[in-house]
Amino acid sequence: MMMRMMMLISGGSIVSAEAVWDHVTMADRELAFKAGDVIKVLDASNKDWWWGQIDDEEGWFPASFVRLWVNQEENTAVETVEGASPSPSEVQNGHADASPSSSDCLCQPAQDRDQMRANIINEIMSTERHYIKHLKDICEGYFRQCKKRRDMFNDDQLRVIFGNIEDIYRFQMGFVRDLEKQYNTEEPHLSEIGPCFLEHQDGFWIYSEYCNNHVDACMELSRLMKDGRYQQFFEACRLVQQMIDIAIDGFLLTPVQKICKYPLQLAELLKYTVQEHSDYRYVAAALAVMRNVTQQINERKRRLENIEKIAQWQASVLDWEGDDILDRSSELVYTGEMSWIYQPYGRSQTRVFFLFDHQMVLCKKDLIRRDILYYKGRINMDRYNVVDAVDGRDDDFNVSVKNAFKLSNKDSDEIHIFLAKKLEEKLRWLRGFHEERKMVQEDEKIGFEISEYQKRQAAMTVRRMTKQKGHRSVPPGYPPPMDPMNPGQYLVGDSMEQSEFEFPEPERCKSPFWQSFMEKGIAGFKKEHNEH
């Protein structure tokens, strides 16, 4: 595959790739894009990182984030990158081969079509009933028995292992009750189950917490199972409850499997539901809702898998003060370098800004080692609004500005002004602030947060890596390979590895609000301003 690509590129063929995921840049010379963007591939000699172009921008991007297209403008057949198709979220969301085709439905005899719909309805009802039994076995057979053994399990362990399984059990019982009311036992194909999914759509968000916690549950169970006492205890629980011969981790996996299966079932049901059927528009709407639920759950899971990188990035920043990033944030939204003035008549300072959900961190580059960052404060995005600034003389700061925007404190007269180098960069920041606010609102809606257990695990990983390497921690992962047009650009000293979280060329942007510069407040920053 790689050899063929390089032959196409060197032969003058246009090789393009469609972005499957958003890529937020974290290092110099990386190419930012959103899912759906088309990237022209210029160099694919490295199997993990390719060099590409979007409009006038060039940079590195991870090969696993794209699907490869050859001669796209001529509509030649698409060829998927090795190992990239279909993505797990596509399968889980029901996108892979699940799009209903009206021709598939219409070309079948009505009797066969009705029978197929009846079969799917019966399968949905059957699996729901079996699922309720599994949830009951987990709650009564395992969870309640574990709570009785305080000598073996503390509250933190129970929370990690079982998550919000009891909430899921209660929700699912109510959902199944409503499904049973809509189920036509005499003529199952006439059943109208679509409205049940729509009525309960908000309730399905509780699966997000459970799915996000599932990896930690498996890790904790694996640790406990090294002790023979726990193996015997869980097996005894299974036998007393008369459960099927599946280990506890298999039972705990069923909610994850269930929420991922709904889009597949609904897509299949819609395929055999004619548009004239009273349930058609409800099933179509339910399919969209459940795809969105699983997509958001996958996104939250991806963010949780990224928290170690955030912890490692923080460990790489010198002179860090105040709370850890993970105490409030779980996603790097956007980053870039700008000029900044935080008081009228104050002098402009150049800082590297890292916009996370809820907060923006300010860093200063080392004068000699430009890949080293010093912590200089943070801004509480929940307390600020973003205000666009018109080019020209600014009345608040009495200075001429261009490509600027402000952060205005909602509770005081405090205002900060930022100046980007280009208009495009300013617009990216404004989009970034918008996205940050949107992310915060969605997290509040579904109750997304990083557990204390997950924070501790991330911190332990960073300490272990730092100890092994013998120097301060630097975010792992992806030093992009050297620029093919500029060899040697990424050479660094022996004591410093190339890092994933460096100061990048800004990327996609999001929403408004800022953070007070750590706990020392504006007075501390004025003092720092005078010192530097």
UniProtKB/TrEMBL annotation:
Gene Ontology molecular-function annotations: guanyl-nucleotide exchange factor activity
Segments traversing the membrane: none
Physiological role: Acts as a guanine nucleotide exchange factor (GEF) for CDC42. Promotes formation of GPHN clusters.
Lineage: Eukaryota, Metazoa, Chordata, Craniata, Vertebrata
The gene coding this protein: LOC112250238
Predominant subcellular localization, coarse grouping: cytoplasm
Gene3D superfamilies per the UniProt record, alphabetical: Dbl homology (DH) domain (1.20.900.10), Pleckstrin-homology domain (PH domain)/Phosphotyrosine-binding domain (PTB) (2.30.29.30), SH3 Domains (2.30.30.40)
Keyword annotations of the record: Cytoplasm, Guanine-nucleotide releasing factor, SH3 domain, Signal, Synapse
Native source species: Oncorhynchus tshawytscha
Subunit organization: Interacts with GPHN.
Domain DH residue range list: 116-300
Sequence ranges assigned to domain SH3 in this UniProt record: 12-71
One GO term describing the cellular component: postsynaptic density
Domain PH: 331-438
Cellular localisation: Cytoplasm; Postsynaptic density
Positions of region (Disordered): 78-105, 464-484
Signal peptide: 1-17
Name recorded for this polypeptide: Rho guanine nucleotide exchange factor 9
Keyword Amino-acid biosynthesis: no
